[in-house]
Design brief:
The chain is an alpha/beta fold and 482 residues long. The protein is 38% helix and 13% strand. The protein has 15 helices and 16 strands. β9 and β10 form a beta hairpin. It is globular, with a radius of gyration of 21 Å.
Amino acid sequence: MGLRKDFLWGGATAANQFEGGYQTGGKGLSSVDVIPKGENRFPVMRGEMDYRTLPQGSYYPAHEAVDFYHHYKEDIALMAEMGFKAYRFSMSWTRIFPTGLEKEPNEAGLAFYEAVIDELLKYDIQPIVTICHFDAPLQLIEEFGGWKSRQMIDCYLAYCQAIFARFKDKVKYWMTFNEINMLMHLPFMGAGIRFEEGENKQQVLYQAAHHELVASAKATALAKSINPDFQIGCMLAAGQYYAQTCHPNDVFDALDKNRDNFFFIDVQSRGYYPAYALKYLEREGIVLEMDATDGQVLRDNTVDYIGFSYYSSRLTGTLEREGEQTAGNVFATLRNPYLDRSEWGWQIDPVGLRITMNALYERYQKPLFIVENGLGAVDHVEEDGMIHDSYRIAYLKDHISEMIKAVELDGVDLLGYTPWGCIDLVSASTGEMSKRYGFIYVDKNDKGEGSLKRIPKDSFYWYKKVIASNGKELDTFEKSSL
């Protein structure tokens, strides 16, 4: 009983929020490099505002982020001190193919990631690589329109070929796209999509979704041809929808919204478009352009495991009543009166993690991997130089407890747990540094000022104990144990 002996405890980051070095080592510009902090951030991420019209002096937090590019040895040593078994990170597409159109990969980019991977392996930390984490070459967006175009598939596969071949003996776990369903909510950030006047947005989004799904399946086939032992996963922004009331219309609305969220993973895990999705496309008059071989490609190349992020459950209803809205990983949701909220309005629902795990495992019967979870909060450095983040410890303790119940009591097969932003990084949604998730504090503020010094928080030492006990010791440590 309990978690597997080789359970992959660790943490997760993304190149575009963490790495920096945006024009170092031959790296080209990517979509995230032109997404600003401030009032224009969401219009650009939604594809409604052209980044080329942004005012001069806009601040782009991804350019430096927290400079993992120059701090990776220090950062990985801190992960090792916590006892990490795994580290989930993404590779930047434009570090490997600066424009996305090169015939040969950029050796400096490959060498950087090889150095990172070798450093991880030195400490017996398993690299978990996200191939595309909200990161598309800017030139492909300008020339092809991002994932609107089928031409993106071959460019993506060239990138996959380069990294699969280079790291075939060093990386086992891969994920094709981060939170693939996010392209429906933040099209430019998720898929490099800018809408033109008069375009049918739903047609554009579902066509782009089809291109990414085919790319994911073809990447899976390519991976297995290079190393049959590769484990290829999909990844969704998860969180179960609850019905606001027991009115049948509310119950069906929750079912319908859950299906919308599962759509991408249904295709990646089962290998075909589900009936409900085909009916929706038919009702909306959306006709997808498909290659004659696409159906077979999807059927033959399903994923090995289901990666997902979980920050909160969601609430939905249909009846005409006043309902307060609250935030949560881009998805606006009705306020659940039974849940507390974070400083950013995200609802806190540890039991919802267990519910979500059960829903995913019962639906797909494939191993799960929690690759994001955590609490964004404002941290304060005390006079003694310490960061006392008991609120983060409480959040993670409650979620890990429910995660273990899903394994021990419900029989869910779980590969690992890599909470988000294990070292403080730039928030994807707001571009802020003050919205911190990490076990390790980084001295940098929302204006981009700071020394970038790393400081372990109380949660660093707590998580170290959790990992060492394989989840058996979740009680808050005494200060004397530091």
